[in-house]
Amino acid sequence: MFGLNQKDGQLILIIAILVFLAPFLLNPFPVESELAQFNAGYPDLMQRFIIFGIFAIGFNILFGLTGYLSFGHAAFLGVGSYSAVWMFKLLSMNIIPAVILAVLVSGVFALVIGYISLRRSGIYFSILTLAFAQMSFALAYSVLTPITGGETGLQLALDDPRILGQQITEQGNIPVPSLFGLEMRDSMDVVIGPWLFTFNVGYYVCAIIMMISFYIAVRIFRSPFGMMLRAIKSNQQRVNYTGLYSRPYMLAAFVVSGMYAGLAGGLMAAMDPLAGAERMFWTASGEVVLMTILGGAGTLIGPVLGAGMIKYMENIISKINETILHEWFRWMPDGIEDLVVTLIYPFIGKGWHLTLGIIFMVVVIFLPGGLVEGGQRIMRLFRRRSKSRNTTNSSDTFDSAS
Amino acid sequence: MGILEVKNVRKRFGGLQALSNVNLSVTENSVHAIIGPNGAGKSTLLNCFVGKLIPDSGSVMFDGQSVLGRAPHEINQMGISRVFQTPEIFGDLSVMENMMIPCFAKRDGAFEFNAVSAISSQKDIIEQAEQVLEDMNMVNKRHMHASALSRGDKRRLEIGMCLSQEPRLLLLDEPTAGMARADTNNTIDLLKEIRDKRNITIAIIEHDMHVVFSLAERITVLAQGAPLVEDTPENIKGHPKVREAYLGETV
Question: What is the CATH number of the domain that holds B9?
Fold first, then answer.
């Protein structure tokens, strides 16, 4: 199917189903229940899952395949956002030209930064990319204020030309990003019993784009180009002495992953039409590294899982406060309740970074392959169990299962 | 005129004259061994052939073209493949993938952005890689991680990778270094088979005299950065100057 082998085809199909049913899956708790705060099925967060998923998929093409750790990928995200907003200001509020320009501009940007940074490898490469990203961040804040809006960020205004689209809506407002009239912020609420599910246009547009980008990433992983990148990660010396010029391969991977970041940035602006320099800050670059490693660098689905997990924690765990904790442990005797709340308190709310840090350490130490490796281990455990059960019945099934 | 012509090559590292005026000619379709005591400049010389080092003066011509100043991948594309002292393979990749990569390099050149087609659709490459695996007797290990192979099999794989490019000149840098006797003998047999069955020139640097004398048709002895003698194995064996330089014996 579409040039994929059966296993990859199944993987894409499963992800597509999960992504399209996400408004249901992420809202498992009734609105009125105490657990409703664990619901992640609201448009803003779901869009972020998808957008950061795209960002991480792209980052994984560079880091997962070639092993070159870029610490400046947020620069491409920022460039993508600025490009998209400029398209909204100058051309129209249609997201298609905005996203296309975001991808192209960040690709050119990645070509320049990659060309220079890839002269070095290892830690020096990381430092060079970090330096470039921080330079972009500083420039966006200061010298480039006419283009980037400086501290306030780049925002839409009523007097923007928008030569191909509507300049001002009939009500006198700034128009909102749309796809041929389909507004990104439009949502449809469905109430089923005590449950509420929200279906957002922007989310589904992002989801379709993510499925396309994921499909492209799978094709890259399975292509000769992807194999060359893995070869470079494994032994660059042998690559060169096998008659392959490694640098253009690296540069191509760098540009492709920069374009993914630009796409993510463009979509961010498409969901919420403003762009700020803080998107280029080094912590944003670090975040995508965490996502990729947490999920499993070099695996297909890992980065998406990592992105989802981190964004979920950032938005959900950070919402829990002391009052909620007391509510939960009300059934305990007073003294113990206070003790338990005091013990848990540092890990929630603003302390969600602490929880993330602990999870990250545990994953890196015990599951070097990330969440994907964890999943694989569980699968193997189940398979072994069912296998040993089968072997007691007949020895033939053993061979067919393995 | 040999396929590899080395003329007046000199190389100095700081105060050390690693190579002083090396002249060497490797005849096409022969096995030429370069031997010499530690520090004689054997590896330096080999590195000058493959673009890792550039000599201070002199010329290195391969098939009438200079290799000096060219990058390793360009020299490889000219038809020189190199086997390293410690096997340089793609440890994270499977044996089959290891074998396919040089096949791609041979077919598509130094850079080809082929991100569209699937590897499994590259029938000609798969066939070619399988053929070499068969020649190397490694078909049953095709799905193994290359890093899990034994030392002897790693060497076998590396030689296979070089052969799959059908090079005109195969350079071997101490191919049996650090190997057990059985592995050494297997490697010798493999190299003999390559010598006899393929149209290929082999230049080999070796410490182990057993390997050299069972393979080489021509031997150059290097000592202190300069060729001492060049002759057939029979004559080298009894040569007094060689015994002196190599074994430290005064005859």
Answer: 3.40.50.300
The DSSP line for A53-84 is HHHHHHHHHHHHHH----S-THHHHHHHHHHH
Q: Give residue-wise pLDDT tens across range B117-147.
A: 888 889 999 999 999 999 999 999 999 999 9
Q: What is the ipTM of this complex?
A: 0.91
At CB < 8 A and 24+ separation, what contacts does A16-21 make? A16/A211, A19/A50, A19/A207, A19/A210, A19/A211, A20/A204, A20/A207
Q: Please indicate, yes or no, whether residues B113 and B184 belong to a single structural domain of this protein.
A: no
Domain count, chain B: 2
Cα–Cα distance list, A376 to A57, A372, A382, B110 (Å): 19, 6, 10, 37
Asked if residue B86 belongs to a domain, the reply is no
Quick check: B182 contacting A, CB < 8 Å?
no
Phi and psi at residue B92, in whole multiples of 5°?
A: -80, -10
Q: A233 and chain B: CB distance < 8 Å anywhere? A: yes
Final residue belonging to a domain, choices B144, B166, B188: B166
Q: What is the pTM of this model?
A: 0.91
CB spacing of A241 vs B106 below 8 angstroms? no
Of B114, B132, B166, the last residue of a domain is: B166
Instruction: Out of A224, A241, A248, name the one closest to residue B122 (CB).
Output: A224
A342 in B contact zone (CB under 8 Å): no
